[in-house]
Amino acid sequence: MSMINNALSGLNAANVALTVAGQNVANAAVEGYSRQAAHFETAGSPLGGVNVMSVERIVDAFLNDDIWRTSSALGYYEGKQAYLGYIEEVVGTDTLNFNDAITEISNAFSAAATTPDSLAYRQEIISTSEALLQDLAQLNGALEGQLSKLSLEMSNLALNSSSTTAQIAELNSQITQAEAKNLPTSELKDNRERLVTELSDTIGIAITDRADGSIDISTLSGAPLVIGSKAAEITVSGTTVTAELAGQSFQLSDQVGGRFGGLISADTQVIQPTFTSLNTLVKDLADDMNTALLEGFDLNGAAGIALFDYNPVNPLGTITINTAITPEKLALIGGEFDIGGTWVAAGGSGDNTNIANVVAAIANNGSGFTSLVGELGINSQQNQNSILTSTTLNDSAVLARDSRSGVNLDEEAASLIHFQQMYSANAKVITTAGQMFDSLLNMF
């Protein structure tokens, strides 16, 4: 009977192995599927045949960690580039060039020097200044639009991330229950790893395995995202991202990694600094020109008035032409101190000595804009290089994981043949044992 029992155990083992190989072949095209393998052991009793010890997923935690790490890096740089590239293009476009606009204003002042009492030349100065303000309004609108888009994307990302962490927590619960009942968990773990990969694209993560089969997930800075069957809710207020779990709140910075980190970086390292730089440029230009004009006198000999008005809190978004300004009130006439020490007009309507002061004031502006455009270009190129590097590393990590955990149809075909032969051989043993038993009975 031991021969038959051995063969029966072999048949069972071969049948399990054939079923596993069939499962692998059927799921070969399923993204994130980890191939499975049957593990055998010799039965404990002498000549007791073979036992199916387990059916396990073929996975490598280090390879998965590489995928999640490189996916986070790629998500970070791609998220940042979506805004960095756009702002680089807008700020650097020829039609909105700040330096070209102030050159036009300077040229208008220089042209007026030939006939400073000409209302046409004076109107040209105001018109070129208005053209500058139109360019600035477009720049401000583009930046404000990117800020609104960024906030909306972060809100949508927060909803998706909260949904993902909730699904992972639910799978943790199912896996824990299944393992406690000694039920299969391979498909559940495959689904969980797929969700973790999605989450890693959004946020840089660290994984801790638990003995009960569940996992804990935290950000790279230690903020908890999933603890067993509990999941964090991620919320956004403006561009501030917060993870809330078990009554505790954790604010996420650009160091969180993933697309969230890239978007936060786009806000703190690209959009806001660009606003700051442009606000400084606008304020300095307006102040310099206003100061120069206030030192001169208009066609009627009255003291000069400012050309620009703006709110110091937001020069870029509020700068306008002074409503009191007219061509006649442009202070192109120079000033001097009289005998009594009073600042008075240096000449009549044909005097142009203050024009040189204004042109000189304008000439001191513009270098900051050139630096801004150059810095945006350099940062964009560096970020694009980082995207290429991260893409290569992520592709390599995925290939390494697939070579280990993915289904190789040639290998599975060989396994099917091998276990089919094993099944047939054990069936032959049973047939032989039956024939021997029949021959033994026929002897009596």
Strand content: 5-15%
Largest sheet: 4 strands, antiparallel
The helix/strand class is alpha+beta
Measured between the Cα atoms of the first and last residue, the distance is 19 Å
Q: What coarse outline follows from CA principal-axis ratios? A: rod-shaped
Number of helices: 10
The count of domains is 3
Strand order of the largest sheet: 3-4-5-6
Low-confidence region ranges? none
Explain what you see.
The chain is α+β, with helices and mostly antiparallel strands and 444 residues long. The protein has 3 domains: 2-58 and 409-434, no CATH class; 64-90 and 149-264 and 377-398, no CATH class; 105-144 and 282-367, no CATH class. Helices cover 62% and strands 13% of the residues. It has 10 helices and 13 strands. The strands form 5 sheets. The protein has a 4-stranded antiparallel β-sheet. A 3-stranded antiparallel β-sheet has the order 7-8-9. Strands 1-2 form a two-stranded antiparallel ribbon. Strand 3 (205-209) and strand 4 form a beta hairpin. The mean pLDDT is 91.
Could you give a short description of this structure?
Helix content is 62%, strand content 13%.
Properties at a glance:
alpha+beta, rod-shaped, three-stranded antiparallel sheet, four-stranded antiparallel sheet, 3 domains, 444 residues
Write the layout of secondary structure elements.
Elements (H helix, E strand, L loop, with lengths): L1 H25 L9 E7 L7 E8 L3 H32 L5 H15 L6 H62 L5 H17 L2 E5 L5 E5 L4 E4 L2 E2 L1 E5 L2 E6 L2 E5 L5 H37 L13 E2 L5 H4 L1 E2 L13 E3 L5 E3 L7 H11 L3 H39 L3 H34 L2
Antiparallel strand pairs: 1-2, 3-4, 4-5, 5-6, 7-8, 8-9, 10-11, 12-13
